[in-house]
Every structure is written in C-alpha cells, then in structure tokens.
Specification:
The protein has about 260 residues and is of the alpha/beta class. The chain contains eleven helices and seven strands. Strands 2-1-3-4-5 form a five-stranded parallel β-sheet, with helices on both faces. Strands 6-7 form a two-stranded antiparallel ribbon. A hairpin with a 5-residue loop joins strand 6 and strand 7. Helix 2 packs parallel to helix 10, helix 4 packs parallel to helix 10 and helix 6 packs across helix 7. The N terminus is likely disordered.
C-alpha cells in the first residue's frame, strides 16, 4: 500500500500550502482577538454613543482595506446607520470623469480626502472607522486628520507592525494611528502576507481576515451596549429572507440622505 504524504512534503521544505496558511492565520487571529478586549470595548462605546446621539458610522478604506468598510456598512446582521466612503464616490456622486479611477496612486493623494469628506457630508455626531493596513498613504492619513479637525471620534484598523516600520507618505509625517481615539491592530506582519517563499517574498495576506473579526467583535459589543441602554439596535436583516426588504427600508428611511446604498 502506497504511503500518503503531505502536500508540503511533496512540494519541499519552505513551500507554502493551505494547511500552513490555516495554522499561521489561526495564530494571528487568536492573538488579535485575545489582545483586543479593551480596545474593542472602547470602539464599541464610541459607536454606541454616536448612535444614541443620532449619529451614523462612516467607514472608509482604500485598496483591499475597502473590504473593512464593506464589512461595517450595509450588510446583514450589521448596523443600519452606517455609510461606506470609497474613492469611487468621486465618480458616482462627485461628477469626476470615470477615468479618474484609472490612477492606481489616488490613495496616496491627500487632496482626495477633502472631496470624499465633503461628499459624505457627515454630521458632527458621526463616528468614523478608517482602515488601512499600512496606515501611511496620503488620502487615508489626511482623512483621519480631517475627521479629528471636525471633532469626530475615530477608530483606526491598521497593522501596528507594518505602520511603525513604513515611512509615512503624508506631508505631516504622521500615520493613521496617530490620529485615532482607538487603534485596533489587525496583527498583520510587515507586508501583510504570512508565508515566506523560497525565492523571497511572502504569500497569503491576513489583514482582511483579522479586520473582519475585529469589525464583528465591535458590532457585537456596540449592540450589547445599545440594548443595555434600552435602545433597540437598528440591525439589518438579510434582504434574501422574507420581510427583509421591508424591515431594512423602514430603518433606512430614518437616515435618509445620510447613508448611501448601492455600488
């Protein structure tokens, strides 16, 4: 009978495989979720306070960090008073030509943040969640600066390791985390990817996974705080269950003009 061998044994020492990734990712997730109890509670407190004061959660990220904004805003089981800010808003809502988005370096331009903030038109009581693994690009840092200049609470989701080792691209020399009231460290290594390759470099990024865990941990705690305060949490049902559309529209109508849903 032929003896079975593992995929890593077949591929050679140092060659990544799915099981190695799962083990490495689990280690990062375990460290992130156990080390962030206080920060998660603090972030949830900021969100619950904003919602009780008729605020909404403004979520922003560029590149792959946009996935964190998508995790926060407009999904089943999440809070209704949430708005996703994205660079494509320049075209969808701001009248910029479509080819504006062909520039891959837009996220490095601090000036873009001013137009995005203007298009979002946040109220003073709104709280911001800004995600950036590196925390160094001009648009992200400038948005964080604007947020604090306008008096909003700010929750940052970033890799503390990567951010501390990378040179800021903002003229101030500051990073996203420098402006935040609460920093949620996604635990990603420098460069984000977990598994080293024999020829150099690494593969399999982890920041999206850990950021989603953090977002849902904060979501759970914010809902708990609202319930304990006697407030019925405005939470989405899936649009793909009976009554979901009707339930969601009734809640969204309370925040008409303040939250955008769609592309």
């Amino acid at each position: 009978m032929k003896k079975k061998t593992s995929s890593s044994a077949c591929r050679g020492v140092g060659v990544p495989d799915s099981q190695e990734f799962l083990a490495a990712a689990k280690d990062v997730v375990d460290r992130v979720v156990t080390a962030h109890t206080d920060a998660v509670l603090a972030a949830a407190g900021l969100i619950a306070t904003a919602l009780k004061g008729d605020g909404v959660v403004q979520a922003f990220g560029t590149g792959h960090s946009e996935s964190l904004a998508t995790e926060v805003a407009g999904r089943a089981g999440g809070l209704v008073p949430t708005n996703k800010i994205a660079i494509r808003d320049l075209v969808l809502y701001g009248g910029a030509p479509a080819d504006t988005l062909s520039d891959p370096l837009l996220e490095r331009d601090p000036a873009i943040a001013h137009r995005l903030y203007e298009l979002a038109a946040p109220h003073p009581e709104d709280v911001f969640v800004i995600a950036s693994n590196s925390g160094i690009n001009g648009c992200i840092v400038e948005m964080a600066r604007l947020v604090k200049e306008h008096g909003h609470a700010l929750i940052a989701v970033t890799s503390v390791e990567h951010s501390s080792r990378a040179t800021p691209r903002h003229p101030s020399g500051r990073r996203l985390g420098d402006f935040a009231d609460v920093v949620l460290d996604n635990g990603a290594p420098f460069g984000d990817a977990l598994l080293p390759l024999p020829s150099g470099g690494s593969v399999c990024a982890v920041s999206t996974i850990t950021a989603a865990y953090l977002a849902q941990m904060v979501n759970a705690e914010a809902v708990r705080l609202l319930i304990e305060a006697g407030v019925t949490p405005p939470v989405y049902l899936s649009a793909n269950v009976p009554g979901g559309d009707e339930h969601n529209k009734a809640l969204e109508d309370r925040y008409a003009g303040r939250i955008r849903r769609g592309a």
